[in-house]
Amino acid sequence: MDISSYLAVGGWFIQVIFDKYLSYKLRRWAANCGIDHELDRLRVALLRTQSVLHGTELAPTLPHSSLPWMQELRDVMYHAEDLLDKLEYNRLHHEMEESSANESSSSPISAFMHSRFRDQGAPASSPEPCWDRSTQVKNKMVDLLERIEQVASGVSEALSLPRNIRSNNRNIMTSSIALGKIIGRDFKAQQLVTTLTSSQDENPVSVVSIVGVGGIGKTALAQHVYNDTRITENFNVRMWISVTHLFDELRITKEMLESASSSRFRHDGTTSFNRLQVALKARLASKRFLLVLDDVWNSDNTTIAIEEENWRKLLAPLKDGAKGSKILLTTRSSMVAEMLQSSYIISLEALLVNDCWSLIKSSMFDETSHNINSQLENIGRKIAETLSGLPLAAKVVARHLKHKHSVDEWKQVLQRNAVWEEIMPILRTSYDNLPPHLKQCFAYCSIFPRDWEFEAEQLILQWIAQGFVRPDACRRVEDIGMEYINNLCKKSFFTVQKKEFVSYYVIPPVIYKLAKSVAAEECFRIGDDEWIRIPSSVRHLSVHLDSLSALDDTIPYKNLRTLIFLNSRTVAPIKASIPQVVLNNVRSLRVLDLSPCMIDKLPDSIRQCVHLRYLNISSTMITTLPEFLCKLYHLQVLNLAGCRLGKLPSRMNNLINLRHLTAANQIVSSVTDIGRLKYLQRLPIFKVTREQTQSIVQLGYLLELQGSLQIRNLENINTPDEAKEAMLCKKGQLSVLQLMWAPDLDEVNTNKEEDVLEALQPHENLKRLDIMGWMGVKSPSWLENEWLSNLKHIFLSGCNAWEQLPPLGQLPSIKTIWLQRLKMLRQIGPEAYGSGSQQEPFHLLEELVLDDMSELNEWLWSGHTMRNLHNVVIKDCSKLKALPPVPPNLTEITTARKGYWMPYHHDVKFAPATTARPSVSSLCIFNCPLLLARLSSPMTIEITASFGLLRSIITDQMIILKCPLLRERLELIESLDIQDCSEITSFSADDNDILLQLKSLQSLCISGCNTLRSLPSTLSRIKSLSKLVLWNCPALESLPEEPLPLSIRKIEVALCHPLLKERLKKEHGVDWPKIAHIPWVEIDGEILQQKLQIGK
């Protein structure tokens, strides 16, 4: 860490201390303890230090002699925070002790000296000592004050010394470059030229951006394109401006004028920004121009709004240019590209190794002399592999190799770090431009391995635990942390990768080298043969489980704030023995992750980690947790996922700073007096009892709950006023709310039930509402109006007294309605559509489910069409006779009787359609012999006449494919699932003929056919088939005689006859040759062959 970084982080750290610890509560408690004078002196000393640091901000350089003082300042700030954090811990301990009627009160600072007392021989479980605590605390604070004052004086004195003024010249790039092949970027270059010469953009002047990390080749690409003949012929005026860090609107405007002039523009030394702008506007009026703004940065010292305004003023003269004019900017930050409203963004990635090696050779030699001997070629390629695909690194390497001709000389380049020593200062400018809090967050990431896939939530929670995320009264601290991640992404410090709908954040290889460089003194990782001697300044440490032997007594554990054990994510957790020397000495920890270690007991030494905020013991073999866990009052995150716990410690409600408790739902719901955990973010299930410690009132204190909340046993609410105290209407972060009463209650007070539900009014932001088992008759008022304007999904189940639906049609955002077991509901009439809304009822409804509505006989049509409805499910509605018209967008129809998925309701009639026919793309028919026998029924005619887009069929009867209305569309079927055909033993000749008519069939799934012994003989002739699934066909022993078609890319076989598995053994099975050509072969969950291309 250099001097400027110490300066920025030091000032930030002092502010964090002020924000977190010098609160009214702590000062009042200190006064009671007799240490308020020392606390005030500490505050004054910190203020003085802060003023010294602020006084250096305008200095262009800092003397090197100040570096030791800056390092000392960092250490003393850490020590100050530890001391104040310990004081805050003891304040909380005193508060907890006072609130406990069953425990004797103790001195407020008794815990502070507990560790020293234990060191003198007292057992770990002994009570806190009671002798002369205040004096010893004061002594510690006085020692700290002396150190702070000494450091502040030293820093001040060092900064007053003469300074070696460094050159302030900017690294200005010009448009000049020898035009030729640009290695590894040909496609990007063509893409860029096409975009710049296009006139299709609606705006007369549009912005195109090239974004990427430092040294990735943004300027080189822009230079190449700038000098392309297609560009020179397309634009009347071309301008190249090197912007760099300092935004100087006067300089940039002057350079634009000079660049736009055929002869050098004489501005007569004018410093009038307005006069320059007027001249530039006249020069560019009605001309088609290209302006390149190279190396544009954004400042973290000004708001985006101010920066946008500055750029708007600067570029205002350009708006009168001719249509097709373009601004091309290069930047390391996508934030800049967004701020300047880029219509097209090109992101530059690392070069391939072959391209890197080609660039090295082309930079070393002229175009005619690339020949080198094979030994140097091999070494050169190895060097290229170390460069992380960075073009700048390739050019630096070329300069080192150009005049070296021996193998030994090239090997020296391979082994030395000289290349990165030259490149790192260029990369470091991106880091230097970060605000202090992002510097801390980014450097912290270096304790994880290269290419580590960060999960945003866990990384943010660790940042919060370290105090890197500065709180804001108006926003959740987790949301602020997510903003940090987004900012780092926009500044190219992270890239986003998506896997199975989950986003991971990865540091690009070259930026990872930067992270290791800037964090070298405080962040270390032991593992992958990268271990070196760890200095006493280390604060954050990760250890790979393969390297536990490296944990010896030479490591300075006492200063550690992070200790994370890692294992390869593809490897199962292993039982690991953590050396006792480690856990006995880590007393300053904020983050501890033991999740890969498979321990069966939480180490007793954790009781001394009173600073701990983040504890992850997920997936371990721990079955019980010690009571001392409940005295870690600073704990914010406790991850117990996958642990085999029977219960939690009894005093979990003492963890009043807990924000995230991850465990099995029944474990979390067992916490009594959970309202004390007022910062809790998630509570999946809350079970209401009549006891005060688990009454509905407890929820009233949890105002930060988000995500999903299920409240069970609502019949235990005593009064509507009690329900109102849950304050559900104040929980704006909840997206899903499930309100559940116990089913089949013997005695029900209907009026009370209605008043309770009225009092449980949710927040208007709610997205999904489930009401189950409620026994009221009258709907709550908040369902009668448009209060739930954001509600998208509603599920009403087991509400057996509900005779009339609320006006669901007037909910403006509703997309899914699921009605289940509403035994008193006989008709859905006009009341369900509502009358108070200006919008058409159900205008966004996409899915309708009527399930086990035993008394429902009709849904009356009001004349409105549910135009977006595409899925209708009707299950066990034996009396239902009529529904509204088939909507025009209906794509899937499902009907069924109890115990089965699909159709039986052959008597249900849809009202005549008044709009275009629906386009059904998926047809599911199960257990419906009557429907198959009555293909001329009104429902069937109404629906099958609209099978023009039918692509998928799921059925338990092959006979459905013989339906005349379907046979003419068989060529369009892409997916066929044959499930639970219990009678079929083989496919008949007719069945085989029908399968051959499925010319577009891509997926064939046969499952649950218990008696099936053989597959269709024509299977090998279905040339379009790409996927075959055979599942749970216990009588199926072999494949057909002919090999499966060459078009198949994937086959999955599971739960079939053991003989089939034997015949499909790789290389040795009788049927293996029939499937050997298939890229993906999976048998009973085991992947025997995997040759699919990535992304396929």
Biggest beta sheet attributes: 17 strands, mixed
What is the general shape? globular
Strand content: 5-15%
Q: At the first level of CATH, what is the class of the domain at 186-347?
A: Alpha Beta
Number of helices: 33
- What's the architecture of the domain at 186-347, going by CATH? 3-Layer(aba) Sandwich
The parts where pLDDT drops under 50 for at least 5 residues are 101-132, 163-170, 897-907, 913-917, 934-945, 1092-1096
Task: Please give the share of residues in helix.
Answer: 25-40%
CATH-level-4 superfamily name of the domain at 186-347: P-loop containing nucleotide triphosphate hydrolases
How much is the radius of gyration in Å? 36 Å
CATH topology grouping of the domain at 186-347: Rossmann fold
Instruction: Report, as a whole number of angstroms, the end-to-end distance.
Output: 45 Å
Alpha-beta content class: alpha/beta
Q: How many strand units?
A: 36
- The whole-number mean of residue pLDDT values reads 84
Domain NB-ARC: 190-368
Family: Belongs to the disease resistance NB-LRR family.
GO molecular function, one term: ADP binding
Pfam family, one: WHD_DRP
Written overview of the protein:
With 1096 residues, the protein is an alpha/beta fold. Among the domains are: 3-159; 186-347, Rossmann fold, CATH 3.40.50.300; 353-425, no CATH class; 451-518, no CATH class; 521-676, Alpha-Beta Horseshoe (Leucine-rich repeat, LRR (right-handed beta-alpha superhelix)), CATH 3.80.10; 951-1096, Leucine-rich repeat, LRR (right-handed beta-alpha superhelix). It is 32% helix and 15% strand. The chain is built from 33 helices and 36 strands. The strands form 6 sheets. It has a 17-stranded mixed β-sheet. The protein has a 7-stranded parallel β-sheet with strand order 9-10-11-12-13-14-15, covered by helices on one side. A 5-stranded parallel β-sheet has the order 2-3-4-1-5. Strand 18, helix 26 (750-759) and strand 19 (768-772) form a beta-alpha-beta unit. The longest helix is centred in the N-terminal third of the chain and has 33 residues, at 67-99. The protein is globular and about 90 Å long. The two termini are 45 Å apart. Mean pLDDT is 84; it is low at 101-132, 163-170, 897-907, 913-917, 934-945 and 1092-1096.
